[in-house]
Specification:
GO terms for molecular function: 6-carboxytetrahydropterin synthase activity; metal ion binding. The chain has about 150 residues and is an alpha+beta fold. About 20% of the residues lie in helices and about 30% in strands. The protein has a single domain, classed as 6-pyruvoyl tetrahydropterin synthase/QueD (Tetrahydropterin Synthase, Chain A). The longest helix is centred in the C-terminal third of the chain and has 16 residues. Bound molecules: the ligand Nc1nc2c(c(=O)[nH]1)N=C([C@H](O)[C@H](O)COP(=O)(O)OP(=O)(O)OP(=O)(O)O)CN2 and zinc ion. Zinc ion binds next to strand 2.
Length: about 150
């Protein structure tokens, strides 16, 4: 939900940036224990990502807000998440659940941040799937993107 208050993450970096995004996607959870969620259905996801660092780039940015939007909202908007290369219906760690989608957003963002000279880091991904359900993903300290 845009403009809501998100859980904060403690850190010692000088700069912290947050970007809200939303995207409409279809998905299904490919396991019998998921009940009705086995059927394809859609959500308008709301994501908030928290980026921090001590140095700005030549533009005075920690990271360009627009590149975050491209990596997440534009990538997933109006798609079937199960068809995206990041997800795999054969492995629960890659089913497009809220947990896995949040982790995937982190991995995509951190992979981009690793290419930047000022070396910002993604500290938190907040992902709301429904009005009543959301996940917060925080990487383990020192752990960066695996993909
Ligand atoms: N831990 C998880 N549990 C569930 C997930 C998930 O990704 N992680 N996903 C689903 C379904 O995909 C569903 O879209 C969301 O379920 P739910 O929160 O139950 O949605 P409702 O709108 O029906 O919830 P209300 O409480 O009635 O608002 C299920 N579980
Ligand atoms: Zn769902």
């Amino acid at each position: 939900m845009l403009q809501q208050i998100y859980p904060s993450v403690a850190h010692d970096f000088s700069y912290e940036l947050n970007k809200d995004m939303h995207f409409a996607s279809a998905h299904f959870v490919p396991h019998e224990s998921a009940g009705a969620c086995q059927n394809m259905h859609g959500h308008t996801y709301f994501a908030n990502v928290t980026i921090a660092g001590d140095e700005l780039d030549e533009t005075g940015f920690l990271v360009n807000f627009q590149s975050l939007k491209k990596l997440v909202a534009k990538e997933f908007d109006h798609t079937l998440l199960n068809d995206h290369e990041a997800f795999d219906d054969r492995d629960p760690n890659f089913f497009p659940t809220t947990e896995v989608v949040a982790r995937t957003i982190y991995e995509r963002i951190q992979k981009h941040l690793d290419t930047l000279e000022n070396k910002p880091v993604c500290l938190q991904v907040f992902l709301r799937e429904t009005p009543t359900s959301y996940v917060v993903y925080r990487p383990k300290r020192g752990k960066k993107s695996e993909s």
